[in-house]
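I'm stuck. Protein, please.
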Amino acid sequence: MNTDIAKRSALTIDGRTLSYLDFGGPGRPLIALHGHMSEGMSYADLATRLAPDWRLIAPDQRGHGASDRAADYSRAGYLADLKALMDHLGLDRATLLGHSLGAINAYQFAARHPERVTALINAEGCAELGLDGSNPLAFVLNLPDSTASSREALVAQLGPMAAHFESAVRERPGGTWGLHFHPQDIYDSEDQVHGDHWADWTGSTCPALLVRGAKGGVLPAEQAAQMVTRRPGTHLVELETDHFVYANDPAGFAAAVRDFLAAA
């Protein structure tokens, strides 16, 4: 499948645009939710690997990519966006896949709307995190939240962080350049995703795959084991990579997902 033909569309929620990519095809629907500072296009490779059995749909979540900023980055807000997207697409049920922030959004949605989720894939989404009050994404506040007259000028503003964030530079309306997210939004969103979410993780009964990065992931091995034990029907796969499992081990991640979905 040629991901260049992925169709970008949008819906309006309370006057705010939510953009999404539909990679098309005849397969069953799989909604893929990215993590902080990422976007729907990050799932292009996975869409190719899962086609034609699965039709992957990947939104740019609020405040990311081509989607508008939101007034808040609450748990309720993210879940309302997902419900609105499914309603817009006419999907009564779908399989949900998420990475990090997106994984927590996915399993919280499954807990609140179990009748709408057929299976769940959680990539590096913790059941509890940030209980010490720290914010591991505080460094984003050092990124430029302004625009520049050219791509090169914006990359220069990034300084030593350019290697990590150059791919997030976008041309904005009017010919200026900036990041496809706002640093303060990311900081606030990270704050609001923290908490004890065990009740949500164990609040659904559909088949679930939990994917952990064994070399530098954010999901501790002990917590992953507890997540499997406390939620029946959950299968754990550990990949020899870091937190960005689907980006840094695309073949291994796709194989784990494909095998799980075939069995589920």
About this structure: Residues 11 and 78 are 15 Å apart (CA to CA).
